[in-house]
Amino acid sequence: PAPSVDFRTRSVAAFFWGLKPTGGYGLEVVGITYAGGTARVILNLQSPRPGAIVTQALTSPYVILELERVSRVVFTEPSGRVLAEARE
């Protein structure tokens, strides 16, 4: 069963990176900051190295997070480049 979430005090956000042609792709949450009703989730997007041996199957990397209650979530790379954002 899914974990219990108190939506009065918590939020849930998801980032879906999309369909990838092979294995070897991944997401790592490297930080979360909160300011002014916004959660900034910093993601490290991982791709296979050229020539790497990877699973020959379609993959869809994603992450689902429980956060403090916020009205806006911004997913960024460590460089600050915005990947996606959502509002309540």
Automatic annotation (TrEMBL):
Domain PrcB C-terminal as annotated: residue spans: 12-68
InterPro entries linked to this entry: PrcB_C_dom
Stated name of the protein: PrcB C-terminal domain-containing protein
